[in-house]
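Hi R.,

Here's the chain you asked about this morning:
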Amino acid sequence: MKTFLKTRLAAYLLPTVAVVILLIVWEAATQLLQVPTFILPAPSDIWAAGQNFGTTVWRNGIHTLNTTLMGFFLGLISGVLLGFLIGYSRLAYVILYPLLVGFNTIPKVALVPLLAIWFGIGTIPAVITAFTLAFFPIAVNVAAGLATVEPEMQDVLRSLGASPWEVFRKVGFPHSLPYLFASLKVAISLAFIGSVISETVASNRGIGYVIVSASASFNVPLAFLAILALAVMGIVLYGVFALIEQRTIHWAR
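And the predicted structure, written out as tokens:
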């Protein structure tokens, strides 16, 4: 059994079986308990909504995916640079880290109305909101990866005449990669949350807009369809980063 759990087949088969069982139980419970569709639609109702509104969800899902990826990559670039700066500079850590923590505690939904005033409704507030949620875990994890490098390893390289850049390239950067990839898998989920938050408040496109519009018209199956589409996109991107991590830093696993 333990050997099977470690196989690639188990990694795909077991989650699939779990999802199928969940859908069966969900369908049976809603049918037996006669739950109204506007409270909790059955999977069959969501499937029917997919037949009618699949194109709408697909089009708005692509918009949400684009804004999420733009915000995420902005967060990746700024988070990595800031993480390197905080991890290597004690002065930068003392000055910037409290500001980062303070900014991260601000509920991002409170910023969306201000972003809508400054930039109008649409793509820009969604990208900025995704960025603000994505860059913090990346910066913190990269800084932690650099800060936890063993001093002995750095001292050995310096004693051999290595420059600060060589110490970073041979020790600091490889040591921070596991932390970076761990943060990427968290950050992409947070970026989706940021985009959808903005779309529910300050947008006329996207998955968040579909959910709000469907809920306003009591089209709950459509709202669930949009939520499931968002979950699928999040799982796919999480899997992409997990695969890149496995291929890139297999030595750290």
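The radius of gyration is 22 Å.

Let me know if you need anything else.
M.
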